[in-house]
């Protein structure tokens, strides 16, 4: 039987996660147990780039947010150096990775020759520093392409038509609108570009010394791929920019081999020349793999720089909000996802202004304020939000008559501020009520059978407690909050196995029946309350969630960006 026992004794599988604020690595052995990990934080480990949270914000162009492409190259070299004393690179039989979704890299004409003949006596930084037609990579936090989004939607017959075709309506952070903006505003950059990579395929390209394909799952986050055919959509390509298909290259399944590792890494770091590089994919798809999410009815909530809610489904039913991507570890299935831009950085802002810059104080406020927060509802947007499409701003309301759950006469009044403890609970409850409201509207299970929480804030027990109360289901956590790099290492092993077998094998065969013996198992963090009081609280949260969605709809009608 094919499975974990088929992985070679003593072999290692290396997974990377190139995220917004850092580059992480996780190494699994052939028993799928973590044996090493490390991280490079862009702001603190590479301070000469002067990024904040790994990004630059353009003061002259509202919503224009990007990262220096070359910083990711330097971080990659630094992380490999940090890993060198921890593992024997010659034992690594496969590598894969995760990239922040939607971010793009522009290789200038002639760069393939440089990439395919890297000199192992020189650094990557010195050899690739002039390989790009622009040094700035637009990333998922960017919201400066509203005009391009509307143009692309209009060209294909509207937002819903685009969603049916590609899995999502046009979103500012998606790569297609970003490419169109570059084509329109700096045409010389577009003309001088021979290949456009996503962050995921960019990092894979460095590893194989060749332009790696974009994988079908991450490719679905571009507004360019036909979600059902899993090929580039000629209709949308033409609506985006001329000659685009040639610059994108071919698509590949997420479990496919991108190539063998480049001679550069064999000679410089003593990797084995037969080490396989498995297609890299996006961070959310890799998290889905790392969380072993394979039951419809389960949801995952990732609490990171962005917050995401995702699950799996057998069929694609795109709508006007949320996203449908091909499932990275199940070729015939799909993953569904909601994404919020205001995640950990916005929580940190509230912590800094209301809780003495201390998570301990923040948590003590969460503990001493009652669930429902006396009806205090907050909307906190440090950055232009994706879901709902609202601009930067803060809105606070007090909802009255909440104690009568049968009442339809809930009234809200807007207020200027909350006291600090209420503000802390308001941001956590507000974010979670929004997730629940949009997840239900998108057709995700209600209530879910269980929620698996991941990302940095999933180590916060008070937040997990609120998730269980608001969603009305048990909450599990994984051993490591960095599920994207763990998922990438698992996908490296899975891709190696598929290649060895000569065809796709289900990823679950690698851990079925023995999940608890690996580093992939999840443990119960908060059980569902079964008492009368718990059920009454859930009913009240349901009423409050509906009220929040009603207020949100009015805000979008009044000041929404879409």
Automatic annotation (TrEMBL):
Q: Which GO terms describe its biological process?
A: D-xylose metabolic process; xylulose metabolic process
Which UniProt keywords are given for this protein, alphabetically ordered? ATP-binding, Carbohydrate metabolism, Kinase, Nucleotide-binding, Transferase, Xylose metabolism
**Every Carbohydrate kinase FGGY N-terminal domain range:** 13-288
* Molecular function GO terms recorded: ATP binding; D-xylulokinase activity
Q: Which GO terms describe its cellular component?
A: cytosol
Q: Which residues form the Carbohydrate kinase FGGY C-terminal domain?
A: 299-496
Q: Which Pfam families does the annotation name? A: FGGY_C, FGGY_N
Q: Which InterPro entries has this protein been placed in?
A: ATPase_NBD, Carb_kinase_FGGY, D-XK_euk, FGGY_C, FGGY_N
Q: Would I find Transferase among this entry's keywords?
A: yes
Q: Which domain of life is it from?
A: Eukaryota
Catalyses which reaction(s): D-xylulose + ATP = D-xylulose 5-phosphate + ADP + H(+)
According to the UniProt entry, what is the EC number of this protein?
2.7.1.17
Question: What the protein does?
Answer: Mediates 1-deoxy-D-xylulose (DX) phosphorylation in the cytoplasm prior to the translocation of 1-deoxy-D-xylulose 5-phosphate into plastids. Can also phosphorylate D-xylulose (Xyl). Uses preferentially ATP as cosubstrate.
Which named protein is this? Xylulose kinase
Q: What is the lineage of its organism?
A: Eukaryota, Viridiplantae, Streptophyta, Embryophyta, Tracheophyta
């Amino acid at each position: 039987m094919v499975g974990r026992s088929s992985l070679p004794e003593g072999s290692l599988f290396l997974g990377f996660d190139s995220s917004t604020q850092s580059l992480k690595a996780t190494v699994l052995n052939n028993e799928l147990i973590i044996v090493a990990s490390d991280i490079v934080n862009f702001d603190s480990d590479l301070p000469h780039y002067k990024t904040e949270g790994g990004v630059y914000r353009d003061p002259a162009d509202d919503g224009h947010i990007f990262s220096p492409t070359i910083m990711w190259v330097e971080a990659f070299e630094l992380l490999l150096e940090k890993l060198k004393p921890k593992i024997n690179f010659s034992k690594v039989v496969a590598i894969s990775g995760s990239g922040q979704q939607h971010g793009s890299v522009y290789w200038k004409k002639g760069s393939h020759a440089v990439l395919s003949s890297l000199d192992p006596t020189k650094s990557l930084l010195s050899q690739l520093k002039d390989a790009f037609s622009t040094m700035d990579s637009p990333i998922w936090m960017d919201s400066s392409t509203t005009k391009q989004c509307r143009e692309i939607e209009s060209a294909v017959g509207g937002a819903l038509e685009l969603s049916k075709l590609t899995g999502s309506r046009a979103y500012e952070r998606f790569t297609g609108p970003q490419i169109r903006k570059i084509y329109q505003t700096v045409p010389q950059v577009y003309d001088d570009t021979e290949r456009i990579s996503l962050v995921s395929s960019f990092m894979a390209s460095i590893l194989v010394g060749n332009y790696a394909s974009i994988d079908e799952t991450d490719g679905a986050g571009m507004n360019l791929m036909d979600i059902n055919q899993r090929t580039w959509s000629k209709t949308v390509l033409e609506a985006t920019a001329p000659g685009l298909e040639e610059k994108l290259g071919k698509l590949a399944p997420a479990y496919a081999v991108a190539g063998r590792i480049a001679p550069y890494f064999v000679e410089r770091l003593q990797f084995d020349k037969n080490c396989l590089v498995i297609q890299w994919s996006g961070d959310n798809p890799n998290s889905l793999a790392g969380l072993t999410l394979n039951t419809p009815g389960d949801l995952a909530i990732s609490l990171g720089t962005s917050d995401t809610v995702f699950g799996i489904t057998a069929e694609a039913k795109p709508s006007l909000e949320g996203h449908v991507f091909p499932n990275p570890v199940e070729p015939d299935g799909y993953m569904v996802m909601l994404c919020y831009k205001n995640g950990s950085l916005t929580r940190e802002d509230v912590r800094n202004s209301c809780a003495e810059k201390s998570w301990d104080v923040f948590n003590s406020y969460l503990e001493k304020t009652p669930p429902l927060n006396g009806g205090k509802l907050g909307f906190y947007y440090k950055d232009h939000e994706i879901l709902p499409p609202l601009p930067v701003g803060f809105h606070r309301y007090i909802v009255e008559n909440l104690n009568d759950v049968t009442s339809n006469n809930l009234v809200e009044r807007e207020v200027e501020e909350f006291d600090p403890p209420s503000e802390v609970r308001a941001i956590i409850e507000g974010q979670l009520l929004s997730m629940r409201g949009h997840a239900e509207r998108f057709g995700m299970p209600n209530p879910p059978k269980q929620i698996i929480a991941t990302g940095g804030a999933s180590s916060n027990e008070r937040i997990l407690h609120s998730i269980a109360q608001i969603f009305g289901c048990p909450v599990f956590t994984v051993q490591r909050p960095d599920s994207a790099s763990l998922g990438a290492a698992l996908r490296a092993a899975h891709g190696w196995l598929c290649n060895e077998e000569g065809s796709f094998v289900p990823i679950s065969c690698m851990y079925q029946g023995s999940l608890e013996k690996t580093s992939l198992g999840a443990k119960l963090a908060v059980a569902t309350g079964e008492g009368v009081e718990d059920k009454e609280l859930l009913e009240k949260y349901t009423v409050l969630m509906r009220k929040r969605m009603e207020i949100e709809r009015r805000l979008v009608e009044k000041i929404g960006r879409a």
